[in-house]
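Severity: low
Component: inverse-folding endpoint
Summary: output formatting inconsistent between runs
Steps to reproduce: submit the following structure tokens with default settings.
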């Protein structure tokens, strides 16, 4: 009998966008290859991982990267991030030994990283074949913020080396340019699809017919606008995260809809209010939902995300002052007046599955 194959996934815990990229790929892969054993390493809560990846997997708690040190979902701490990378790399040998030990225990046939470079470097030393998958990489994000740092090239060197050690670095559309990668492999967009459940939502929340429902999804790095200062708009209601504790008649926390997944909410609402991020943009475009988003112009990946969304979906960008004041009515009305574009096909899922099959020698 052939030995069961094992796949090890190293997943960044910097927000939920990395999980949004990996989850639909792993679900599709396991549906095709249910006998492949899966181990997932991440700092994200295990409950969140299992909610998005509803298939069997072993969970290893532990952060192999940190991305950027954030003030909130929109703003990075630049000096603190540079200091954190300097500390990370001063402890490189010890961190590498820690990651190698985790991989020895799991004994996988292949590693998929989105996008901890430490995991790729450790797998390389152990002779385990690897794939990277992401719309960005931390070396280029760091360069976008820390161009004036005297030691930028020194900090980026081990990152770029690790990323280039993978068999391929899969770059799902829309991805930022990655000029230092020699193994880049562009693929189509990745997103999971929800079910349209609007009638159930309206009934459970007691909404009048014709009410405009906007889902507020500002990402895994929590950011709560000053909602008490926002005006009310007749005929418009907002779905908010349960953690915000909002007490307004025009705002409902989505915990009141336990049978609807986040993807169902995206598919069923009239618009999504969010920040630039891979998961938010592709999930909205692939589920055919318009996007109202707050500017995040200092994030190095943002121009390519916004350009893709404007070409393939329906979107309008607002300023941070509008986020603070709630002056959103004109922008929301303009968004909903746009001719609706057809949903985007998430073709990158099948492409990524094909790469995983080749990584593990299944085809």
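Observed output (run 2 of 3):
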């Amino acid at each position: 009998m052939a030995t069961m194959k094992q796949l090890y996934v190293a997943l960044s815990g910097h927000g939920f966008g990395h999980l949004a990229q990996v989850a639909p790929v792993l679900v599709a892969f396991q549906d095709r290859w249910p006998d492949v054993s899966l181990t997932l390493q991440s700092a994200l809560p295990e409950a969140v991982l299992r909610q998005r990846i509803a298939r069997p997997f072993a969970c290893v708690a532990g952060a192999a990267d940190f991305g950027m040190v954030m003030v909130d979902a929109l703003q990075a701490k630049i000096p603190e991030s540079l200091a954190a990378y300097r500390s990370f790399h001063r402890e490189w040998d010890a961190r590498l030994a820690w990651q190698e030990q985790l991989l020895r225990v799991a004994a996988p046939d292949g590693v998929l990283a989105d996008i901890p470079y430490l995991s790729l470097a450790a797998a390389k030393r152990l002779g385990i074949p690897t794939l990277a998958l992401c719309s960005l990489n931390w070396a280029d994000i760091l360069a976008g913020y820390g161009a004036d740092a005297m030691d930028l090239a020194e900090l980026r060197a081990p990152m770029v080396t690790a990323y280039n050690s993978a068999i391929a670095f899969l770059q799902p559309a829309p991805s930022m340019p990655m000029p230092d990668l020699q193994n880049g492999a562009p693929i189509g967009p990745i997103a999971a699809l929800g079910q349209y459940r609007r009638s159930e939502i309206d009934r459970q929340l007691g909404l009048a017919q014709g009410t405009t429902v906007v889902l507020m999804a500002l990402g895994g790095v929590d950011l709560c606008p000053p909602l008490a200062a926002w005006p009310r708009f007749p005929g418009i209601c907002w779905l908010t995260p349960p953690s915000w504790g909002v007490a307004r008649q025009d705002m409902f926390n989505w915990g009141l809809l336990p049978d609807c997944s986040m993807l169902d909410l995206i598919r069923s609402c009239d618009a999504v209010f969010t920040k630039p991020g891979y998961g938010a943009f592709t999930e909205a475009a692939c589920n055919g939902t318009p996007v109202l988003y707050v500017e995040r112009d200092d994030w190095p990946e943002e121009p390519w995300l916004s350009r893709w969304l404007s070409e393939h979906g329906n979107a309008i960008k607002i300023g941070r002052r509008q986020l603070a004041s709630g002056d959103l009515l004109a922008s929301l009305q303009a968004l909903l007046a746009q001719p609706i574009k057809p949903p985007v096909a998430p073709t990158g899922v099948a492409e990524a599955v094909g790469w995983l099959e080749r990584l593990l020698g299944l085809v």
